[in-house]
């Protein structure tokens, strides 16, 4: 049964702190509250319903459902957090901090911090290795930016104002991305091995760095320099259209929504886009539940900016 199908239903469903808390407990703990400090399920719930106490000797910690999650240590009510999480996990393009500030009635600074914390939540903490047929490609986010005026550049910092991202997408499956310092063999080999199961068929363009992977993978190359984009081989088509499609989505989101992002935060933007891509076939309520299940973690304002 669907819990909600659209934003109207969503807001009816999660209009009080209590409803949000109960739903978060369900997703985070699968209905069995566990101490975030020692992991014990031997816990006592206080009559107010919100606070728990661990019964383990030597722990005895008090906690609520948000302790140890991205939502901890904030004056923002869960109803607002939930709406922001809904928008980032479900909305096709994400949302700028200026727009989010307007929607939630918070300052832009708060919305910016919220946005980044939710991006951290949308990061797949235990991704599986890709297999089958995997397309791999590298891109410069911001494209050829050397000639652009500084205010028009998509990424601040990085090599020549460009940041490099390596991506791999399994056909009919998931995408994975990593911001890398440069596309030399060492970086490319290490990243691909972290993404793709050995002996998988991988399709790349003619970039020399991929040649080092020939020993571990079945490597097919599409020759873009010769204007070759799709080649039919026994049983499958050799092309990198899926990963290039993902780059288009990523760049549209970054340029269209955020205009400019700093290189040190770029991985989080990639993770946000990848989350929506990887859950593209799931219903709204499933995507939202998947996001909440990944709520463990933290990202403080100081970690984000170096400032208090
Ligand atoms: Zn405990």
How does this model look, in words?
The longest helix is centred in the last third of the chain and has 18 residues, at 241-258. The chain is of the alpha/beta class. It is built from 10 helices and 12 strands. It folds into 2 domains: 7-125 and 283-305, no CATH class; 133-274, Nucleotidyltransferase, domain 5 (2-Layer Sandwich), CATH 3.30.420. A hairpin with a 2-residue loop joins strand 10 and strand 11. Helix 2 (17-29) crosses helix 9 (284-293), helix 3 crosses helix 5 (108-121) and helix 7 packs across helix 8 (263-278). The strands form 4 sheets. A 5-stranded mixed beta sheet has the order 7-6-4-8-9, sandwiched between helices. Strands 1-2-3 form a 3-stranded antiparallel beta sheet, with no helix packed on it. It is elongated, with a radius of gyration of 22 Å. Bound molecules: zinc ion. Residues 35, 37-38, 40, 54, 56, 59, 61 line the site of zinc ion (ZN).
Strand content: 15-25%
Q: How many strands in all? A: 12
Supply the helix-strand structural class: alpha/beta
Question: In what order do the strands lie side by side in the largest sheet?
Answer: 7-6-4-8-9
The helical percent reads 25-40%
Q: What is the secondary structure topology, with strand pairs?
A:
Blueprint: H1 7-13, H2 17-29, E1 43-45, E2 52-54, E3 62-63, H3 78-90, H4 97-104, H5 108-121, E4 133-141, E5 155-156, E6 163-170, E7 175-180, H6 185-195, E8 201-204, E9 218-221, E10 231-233, E11 236-238, H7 241-258, E12 261-262, H8 263-278, H9 284-293, H10 301-305
The chain binds zinc ion.
Zinc ion is lined by residues 35, 37-38, 40, 54, 56, 59, 61.
């Amino acid at each position: 049964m669907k819990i909600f199908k659209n934003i109207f239903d969503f807001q009816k469903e999660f209009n009080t702190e209590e409803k949000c808390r109960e739903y978060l407990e369900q997703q985070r703990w699968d209905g069995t509250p566990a101490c975030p400090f020692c992991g014990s399920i031997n816990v006592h719930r206080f009559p107010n319903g919100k606070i728990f106490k661990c019964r383990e000797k030597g722990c005895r910690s008090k906690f609520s459902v948000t302790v140890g999650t991205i939502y901890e240590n904030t004056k923002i009510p869960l109803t607002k957090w939930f709406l922001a999480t809904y928008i980032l996990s479900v909305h096709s393009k994400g949302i700028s901090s200026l727009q989010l500030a307007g929607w939630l009635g918070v300052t832009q600074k708060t919305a910016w911090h919220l946005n980044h914390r939710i991006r951290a939540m949308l990061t797949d903490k235990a991704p599986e290795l890709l297999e089958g047929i995997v397309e791999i490609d590298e891109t410069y986010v911001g494209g050829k930016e050397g000639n652009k005026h500084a205010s028009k550049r998509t990424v601040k910092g990085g090599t020549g104002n460009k940041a490099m991202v390596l991506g791999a997408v399994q056909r009919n499956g998931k995408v994975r991305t990593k911001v890398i310092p440069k596309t030399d063999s060492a970086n490319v080999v290490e990243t691909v091995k972290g993404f793709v199961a050995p002996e998988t068929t991988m399709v790349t363009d003619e970039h020399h760095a991929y040649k080092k992977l020939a020993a571990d993978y079945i490597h097919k190359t599409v020759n873009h320099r010769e204007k070759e984009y799709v080649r039919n081989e026994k049983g499958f088509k050799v092309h990198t259209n899926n990963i290039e499609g993902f780059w288009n989505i990523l760049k549209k989101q970054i340029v269209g929504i955020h205009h400019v992002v700093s290189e040190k935060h770029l991985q989080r933007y990639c993770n946000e886009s990848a989350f929506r891509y990887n859950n593209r076939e799931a219903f709204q309520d499933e995507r939202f539940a998947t996001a909440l299940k990944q709520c463990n973690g933290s990202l403080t304002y100081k970690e984000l900016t170096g400032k208090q």
